[in-house]
Amino acid sequence: MRSNNVIMIIVAIAMSGCARGGSTSGAKLRFAVIPKSLDLPVFNYAKVGAEREAAALGNIEVIWRGPETADQLRQKEILESFITQHVDGIAISCLNGDFLADTINRAVDAGIPVVTWDADAPKSRRVVFYGVDDMAAGRIMGEQTATLLGGKGTVAIITSVGATNLQRRLDGVKESLAKHPDIKIVEVYDIKEDPVRCAEIIASGTNRYPDLNAWISVGGRPVFTRNGLAAVPPRTKVISFDTIPPAPDLLKAGKVQVLIGQKYFGWGSESVRLLADIKAGRMPASPIIDSGVDVVTAANVDQYLAAWNALANAVSH
Fold it and tell me: Is beta strand 294-296 parallel, antiparallel or unpaired with respect to 258-261?
């Protein structure tokens, strides 16, 4: 614990020094914001949030760049390019936190503060992570599933191996379901963040387990398109992460029973705000900021949509 504190103090001194020496009140700060991939619609809201916060602060340019698809090598190359450009700060959602740890450390050593959002790199020396408590969110998914199934049945799980956030959610689901001995996990599928592969796995898994009681997806791929769950029969429950359109419509149509929402606009706005504060010498009080989640069901989906539309309209004006 003491060594972690020492590291944080060193980072704080380094960052405040960069803020004093690297910019003035009138200088434009260049912040690179890197999503996991550009083909994931959930990240479009992070881009809007980042650009909104930059406009509000007035002296920040957001450079939005990520791999076209979920390619960890390409994401690493993009991160390295921003180190070479010596941008003023980097905010990244990591496809594979362990794989990127050394590169993130290189950025920090070069005097570039790094914050992670959505998916962390906990083994790196990033300054702060903003996102959900994934372990707790996984437990919520497990308990929601157990309630829907009445404490017994068979479950298949969808994930993408390598992402720290998805692994922690998966761990939380397993921990929660372990408390219900009459619920059996028949298989855990790796969709590799591929929407086509996701739909194929759901179809093949449904054929393989015709009496399957529930699908749990610790990521949002099944609900990012309207036909991703086409093969799922009405008797099978679906519990999935993410609430962006068209997910609420799928819930209202009965294709999904529980959605777990995240602070999508906040991924961008909070990351930019955190980087701006760090450059000004104001370090975050904690290295982890839990954004919280929204649990959306048929009982509260209309209320959630009203709040979502209000936020979306506020962002767009």
Answer: antiparallel
Distance between terminal CA atoms of the chain?
Answer: 45
For residue 264 the two structure tokens come to 């999508």
Say if residues 133 and 120 touch (Cβ distance below 8 Å).
no
Residue 159 confidence (pLDDT)? 97
Helix (H) or strand (E) holding 114: strand 114-117
CA distance 46 to 55: 14
**What pTM value is reported for the model?**
0.83
* Rounded (5°) CA angle 112-87-264: 85
Q: Are 177 and 143 in contact (CB under 8 A)?
A: no
Residues in the chain: 317
Tokens found for residue 49: 């949030």
pLDDT band at 195 (very low <50, low <70, confident <90, very high): confident
Mind listing the pLDDT tens digit for each residue in 239-276? 999 999 999 999 999 999 999 999 999 999 999 999 99
Q: Are 37 and 69 in contact (CB under 8 A)?
A: yes
What is the chain's alpha carbon radius of gyration, rounded to the nearest angstrom?
Answer: 20
Q: Which is nearest to 67 in space by CA: 224, 232, 193, 160?
A: 193
CA distances from 29 to 6, 57, 78, 210 (A): 27, 10, 19, 55
